[in-house]
């Protein structure tokens, strides 16, 4: 995708380490971070300089390859990287892909690159399959950021929208701001702006109102982990949108690669939900009128706060899953069918 008209990736390998666009500074500035050690990679993921389920899997995969090149203890490195964020299963997928060919550093780097390419290919295919769900001028609501910053080059929820824009279908996107870290306001609005796609930012609390008023044709979000029965964990606030969409007869889709499906997790109740620091709720960062980044307190000092980072949308509220092998029901049968299709394809994961 393009930044200032130039093709850019969200993360990439080079001889001096793992490079990434630092997602904490966008949209104020676009800066490139470099992780040269496993600890650098782990901190970039924990601090959400790098975020989004497929991207953290890709970056962790490069991190393990980095560990091999440096001669680090690979099991210690694997566990350190795995501990960074508990909900997104793609993290484990990326690490496993690289560990499978350990300990040869060259083979591990090639496995990380292959994992990266496979996630990009899956995202591109999600875009093609999801395109069939859009019409000219479709009004799509999304939540958080499931665009190319979260998955190299295409994204998941945004991939059909990018496809539709290129096909001249002029989609319109409602971007919910995504408290507390504002991935919608900061990242999705920025991505869509860079691509020239019409959009409007909405407060998270405005979503049900717009769905009730018939201003939205469909909702598409990403996911961090999909259980075997089709229940899907995604950024907190997704579940509320799915409930409201169901109440008003609006289709609600989850777009995700099969690397996000965890068949070892039976239901959404079994998905670990990351709890992040209350500080993310109690203060906020933004640009002042002089363009300087400022952090300000939002709540009275000492206010107790809870900050679950994800929630689980039960499969009964999900119209279908948009995967790289097609649009399938969000059920155990639909997921089994998707894996069968993937096994039959030469690009199968
Ligand atoms: O906490 P984040 O910003 O990493 O959460 C990201 C999301 O919830 C995304 O919707 C999800 O990872 C899918 S990304 C294609």
Walk me through what this model shows:
With 349 residues, the protein is an alpha/beta fold. It contains 11 helices and 18 strands. The strands form 5 sheets. A 7-stranded mixed β-sheet has the order 8-7-6-9-12-17-18, with helices on both faces. Strands 13-10-11-16 form a 4-stranded mixed β-sheet, with helices on one face. A hairpin with a 2-residue loop joins strand 3 and strand 4. Helix 2 runs antiparallel to helix 3. The mean pLDDT is 96. The structure holds 5-S-methyl-1-O-phosphono-5-thio-D-ribulose. The site of 5-S-methyl-1-O-phosphono-5-thio-D-ribulose has 19 residues, from helix 2 and strand 11.
Structure at a glance:
By secondary structure, the protein is α/β, with parallel strands linked by helices.
Features:
single chain, 349 residues, alpha/beta, 7-stranded mixed beta sheet, 4-stranded mixed beta sheet, 18 strands, binds 5-S-methyl-1-O-phosphono-5-thio-D-ribulose
